[in-house]
Input
Amino acid sequence: MQVQYISAFSVILEVLSRFWPVWIALIIVMGTSFAYKKRLALYGQLFDSGVGIVGVGICLFWLFTAIFASTISPFDPLAQIPVMKDMLPGAVEPQSGLVYLFGGDKLARDVFSRMVYGSQIVLIIAPAATGFALMVGITLGLPAGYYGGKIDTVLSFLANLVLAFPVILLFYLLVTPGIMDTPIPYAMAGVFFLFPIIFFSVLFWTRYKNRPDRLYILLGITLIVGGWIYLGLVFDKDPLHIVHIDPNQLNIFVAVVFASSPGVFRIVRGLVMDIKTRDYVAAAQTRGESPWYIMLWEILPNARGPLIVDACLRIGYTTILLGTLGYFGLGLAPESPDWGTAIKDASRLLRSFIHPALPPTIALMSFVLGLNLLADSLREQSMKD
Amino acid sequence: MLSFIIRRLGTMALTMLCLTMVVFFLINLEPNLKKLAISQTEMHTSAEQLESWLANHGYRQNFFVRYGQWLGVMPKQPVTDPATGKPAQRFSFCNDPVVPTFSGVLEGDFGCSTKFKTTVASKLFPALGATGILMFWVLVVMVPISLLIGILAGMREGSRTDRVLSVASIASTATPEYVSGVIFTVIFASWLGWLNGSAASASQGITFYNFTLPVMTLAIYGIGYIARMTRASMVEVMTQQYIRTARLKGLSFGSVVVKHALRNALIAPFTVIMLQFPWLLTGVVIVEVMFRYQGFGYTLVEAAGNNDIDLLLGCSLVSVFIVLITQLISDVGYAFLNPRIRVQ
Output
């Protein structure tokens, strides 16, 4: 069967028009943000610099791509259409008349659809893992920096222990098919996922200790929602079957959180050691506030600037880590459309075909670049104040 | 200062002990031992045969005994040959002892590689040498370029040069090795045909043709990071009083930068370059696998993929040692370069 091709120019046009829901959403969000930027505090200030606009734009682009993935991509990312094996970009699939915009890979899947669906995996795991790492790092970093002494020595030693592991070795040890037969990933998940619940419970407890009407509502919500997600993620026993995670995704998730929380810990610890010498902390101590109130409600809000910047950079770094995992074929399923796995598959065949390699590499690079630009302009804006 | 270094070395030894113990534990998990036994015996062996292979080769001894044997504080026992009942070598290809001996890492015996059928030392150290050559060229390329970019950008903060170079260095930190490796191979090997997309021939002899792509790929990720740190340090130095004084004295801008600013601005990047080694280690693994260069990273991947216990332990020991020793050098060197820092 002869396969038709469309020209390079129409490939570009078709790609642009495929992303129509993204463009509409981008215009709406960017437009409203720009119009109300005066009222949007730090986020609004991002729109004062070109770097900031580009950073926000790229991040939102991939966010909306992940949300509208099923509308954008013409094919199923796992579907194989044998005629289209190794087809060059712009080949028309004879049955449906739709175009393999970026060509087909060695298993005859649509490279474009795989790139679009790959964004979903990255945009779910990377920010979520960063969020958990932040919770773990903050909950441990606050007491280490505030109390110092023995707690600090022990926790810092543990953090340095993890940091001394080369990331790649850690992944080779923690993300293997064999380890899923042992209780290790579940035990680690059990420990890590406990931190957000502890964090929010202590947060509300210290603030509303003397106002039981508010306290019980907030604590109740935290424990019910937290416990529900906890059951679903760690034991896969969510009674309503909404919260669910694959065992190998859980394994990756835990490994990534484990690798990046010591970094957060070190930053939080350093910030706390600096901030605890300020006068308002001394004032709170004189008022007789409890140590955890001071840490969570006096110190933490004043450390948010550097933490937000670090979180942006860290999501980018986590994306790179996920790509590394995919590149070495660790954890994720071999047919998974994520960018790292796609790069691995394509890079083996670079001598014969280069077109399957470029879309995932450029996607990964642009997303991390967007996050780094965002972090850079956030840092610049917060330094102005 | 001396007591500081001694204390740090003590912490380092403790850290290495803990880490090797963790690695030892994780490699010796039951599924991994099963995998090893399956790969080391013939096809279609029954569960009992696998079990007896493991027991025969000493994998069923107590965890701490085995860790002690690897470390060299417990004597290594020879195995009993099931046919004759006499003590025999554990692995014949490594010249393992037939009498109980203390032979572990502390005695300089790194053990036996089950994948390559040789001693770990004879596999690991040539690989380290090969990676050393790669690292040397990466540093030769990376350090001058990144310092130059950082200084040019930080010299006049906010100028157009600064903006362009800053965005370029952000872009380079957003490009992990597996991305830049693919892009460079596509451009320089597939399209232009100038360079070789594989460095497999580099073990015979390094040429510009086969070694440029790995070096470039490894250097690009680090360049952006070091350049940004240099820029930040340079910007800070340029706002100092003594720079203003030097300018007001009537010195030219160029000589102020070279004579007054540069030396103070290069202290911070030194630390960053030293701390870059652990990052390079991950990069080395990716690049050596991607370009098929038989170095340390390639060995690590082979060891991990085949569950080669002693070789993987050797690799972890080396990499953890590199990470810790560079941290120590960076701390000591920082205090040495910057007299304002006093080590308590």
User: Anything to note?
Assistant: The longest strand of chain B covers residues 79-80.
